[in-house]
Design goal:
57% of the residues lie in helices and 4% in strands. By secondary structure, it is mainly alpha-helical.
């Protein structure tokens, strides 16, 4: 059968590819070509031969002697995405430096030097002056590299007993907690506006609809509060979720805990982790439930906003004329000047 032939051919090629790779140290998996063809792609060859600046030492590079292929550098780098967490990474590192001093691993002077150095790194990020260098594969490596440049070798002590496993999880939780807290503030403001409008306009009547057919007379405020009720449930979900987001994994190491007995409760207080500390180190570095819960909250909240926006789009149309969209949140048509498009509501929907 054709499928069987393809599998057998693939197996043979796989064996030959491994043989080829043993002769091509810079080729991750070199495909077999017919005689006379170039074994490396033009892209890989160009990347391998291109001159490179001196790269930042890898946090994980202890046992390695060979260089990382430039293509692998690009493929493995997350800094373009996780640089948004620069402030959280610095906050976590400052709290950890204090905990190391508290445990006697750093002297008080060393801890203060690291904390002050991280303040300088934060100032560079805030001013848009931070210079990314080759080898800065993520925000953690970039910040520690720059710290060491500023304060010297004492900066290298910051990573004592810490893994990027617990560091990544901590940064993510700190960033998400701040973002959700900001969302909750805006959500509560929206609920308050709807409630105040419903109370102030309690005497305004309108037709209620089922199946887009006029059904029963209702108050305008009753319609407003029907959406506010859904938003209140969203707020309740956030209230319940935030402590689970703000639970501290730092001090869990790669998976088996921290050998230097750092005070994790102290770190949690320093970082405002209202959910306390993660109770199990293996679960702490692998748990992403809080991300899934945040995505669910976001999806459902946007559904509720979409329903509200759709109602207002219909009610503001010429066929209904119940409400009018402010010029500040509408656009027009280049062909039909009589139109007023509720584009802000359309985007929310």
């Amino acid at each position: 059968m054709a499928t069987g032939f393809a599998l057998q051919r693939g197996a043979a090629n796989s064996k030959a590819a491994r043989t080829s790779c043993s002769r091509q140290p810079h080729c991750p998996v070199a495909p077999i070509h017919s005689k006379g063809r170039v074994r490396l792609s033009a892209m890989a060859a160009a990347a391998a031969s291109a001159p490179a600046e001196e790269a930042t030492p890898k946090l994980w590079g202890g046992r390695f002697t060979g260089k990382v292929d430039p293509l692998m550098e690009k493929f493995n780098a997350s800094l373009p995405l996780d640089r948004r967490m620069w402030a959280e990474d610095i906050r976590g590192s400052q709290a950890y430096a204090k905990a190391l001093a508290k445990a006697g691993i750093l002297t008080a002077e060393e801890s203060e030097t690291i904390v002050a150095g991280l303040d300088k790194v934060a100032s560079e990020w805030a001013a848009g002056a931070f210079v990314v260098k080759p080898g800065d594969e993520d925000i953690h490596t970039a910040n520690e590299r720059r710290l060491t440049e500023l304060v010297g070798s004492v900066g290298g002590k910051l990573h004592t007993g810490r893994s990027r496993n617990d560091q990544v999880a901590t940064d993510t939780r700190l960033w998400l907690f701040a973002a959700l807290t900001e969302v909750r503030g805006s959500l509560q403001e929206l609920i308050a506006v709807a409630t105040n409008r419903a109370e102030a306009e309690a005497d305004v009547l309108m037709p209620g609809f089922t199946h887009l057919q006029q059904a029963q007379t209702v108050r305008w405020g009753h319609w407003l509060m029907s959406h506010a009720a859904a938003w209140q449930r969203d707020d309740m979900r956030l209230r319940d979720l935030l402590p689970r987001v703000a639970t501290l994994p730092l001090g869990s190491g790669a998976l088996a805990g921290n050998p230097f007995l750092v005070d994790r409760q102290f770190i949690a207080r320093e970082l405002g982790m209202v959910g306390g500390v993660c109770p199990n180190s293996m679960d702490a570095v692998s748990d992403r439930d809080f991300v899934a819960e945040s995505l669910f909250f976001s999806a459902l909240h946007l559904v509720h906003l979409s329903r509200w926006a759709e109602d207002l789009i219909i009610y503001s149309s010429g066929l209904f004329g119940f409400v009018q969209c402010s010029d500040a949140y509408a656009t027009g048509s280049s062909l039909m000047p009589q139109k007023k498009n509720p584009d802000a509501l359309e985007l929310i929907r």
